[in-house]
Write a structure and sequence with these properties.
This protein is α+β, with helices and mostly antiparallel strands and 412 residues long. The chain has a single domain, classed as Beta-lactamase, CATH 3.40.710.10. It is built from 15 helices and 13 strands. A hairpin with a 3-residue loop joins strand 11 and strand 12. Helix 1 crosses helix 15 and helix 7 packs across helix 12. It is globular, with a radius of gyration of 20 Å. 51% of the residues are buried.
Amino acid sequence: MSALNTSIWNRIGFGLGVFLLILLGIAQFFKKDLSRFQFVLNLFEPHGIVNNFRNMTWVFDYRTVQRSGPVYRIPYENKRLPEFYSYQGRNHDVTQWIERTGTCGFIVVHDGKIIFERDYRGNNSKTRWISWSVSKAFISALMGFALEEGLIRSLSDTVTDYVPLLKTSIYSRVTLTDMLQMSPGTGFNKNYSNFNMDIIRLGRTFVLGTSINDWVMSDKNARLPDTFNHYVSMDIEILGMVLREATGRSLSEYMEEKLWSRLGTESDAFWMVDGSGVELASCGLNATLRDYARFGLLFLNGGKNFRDQQILPTQWIRDSVTSDRPLITPDPDNPALSSPPGYGYQWLVPQPPDGDYCAIGIYGQFIYVHPRYRVVIVKTSAYADYLQSGDEMEYESLVVFRSIAAQMDQHP
C-alpha cells in the first residue's frame, strides 16, 4: 500500500467522527433519552449508516443557514460517465465503484453543466447530508470573506489578536496562516485506545454538554509553530472561535450572509452545534448534493458566483488551493509534511500535482475540483468498511475523479 493510501485517512479528522459521537450518545443516555443513545451507538453500523447520515439533525441540535435570493438552476447536458478507469495496473468498472464505495449521491459538473447526477440508497435532491471534514473548506472560505471585509486584518495576525482568552494557551504565538495550513505545532494525540489521550478527552468535553472552546486551554505543544504540518481538527475549532470574535456573529449567520445567500442555493443548510450552541466548525455542516456542487463551482470559477459577481477574491481562491511553501508541498520525502498530499487552506492537493484539489470527509465525502478540465465532482457516501479500508477507498476515489475529469471532453 502506498504512503498516500495510509496518509489520507489520518488527515480527515476521524476524531470528530466515531468516538465523539459514540461518547455523545453514552452521555446523552443519562441526560436525555434512550432513542438518542441507540441512534449514536448504531451511527456507523452498516445496517443503519445511510439513514443516520441523512438524518443527523433529527437527533442533534443545529443552527439553520437559510438560503435566500434566486435559485441558480445549473443547466443539464446529458453525458455518459466513462465506463472504466485504470487503477493499480488494471481497468475497473465505474458503475461498480459507485456501488462498492457506498455512494449515496454523485454529481459531475462539466463546463458549468450537470452532465451526471444520481441519488442512491433512498436519497433524493432534498436530502441534507453530513459533510464531516468537508466542513473545513467552508470555514476556510469564511476566513477569506472576513479578511476581505477587514474584520481580519492579516493572516500574519496571531490567534490571540482575536481571541484574548487563548493568551495563556499554546496558541499565544500561532498565526492564522499556521492554523489554516494546520501547522501550529499542536500536540494533539489521536490514539483511541488510551482513555487519557487528547481525542478521548475532547470527546468527554463534548459529550458532557460543555463548550469545545473550554477544552483548548489544556492543549499542549509538540513542536514549534510553522515547522510541521499535522492534520488536527481542533485547529478548525480555533478558527471558528476567531471568526465568531472577528465578525461578532455565529458561523451560521456569517455564512448565511456572505456565502449561502449568494450562491443560488436551493435549500437551507443545517450546522450541528455543541452543548453550548456553538457550531462544530470542523465537521458539522449538512447540505444537499447540488448545494455542495455550487460551492465547488465558486472555487472553479475563481470566486465568482452564477451572476458573475466576484464574491470571494480570486487571490484567496488561489492561496486556498496552493501548496505555496515547503512545509505543505506534496512530496513523499518531505519531513515537514505529515503525509504526501499537499495542503492549502483546508483543501488537499493530490499527488502528483495536476492543478486539482479536493475537500474530504470521513466515510467518503468529497468535493473535487479540476480547473483545467472545468470539472466539479461531489460524492456523498456511507462507506461502511471505512475503518478497515477507508484510506484505500479515498485514494482510489481520487484516481476515479481524475479519470472522469480527463475523459469528459472525449465523451459525447
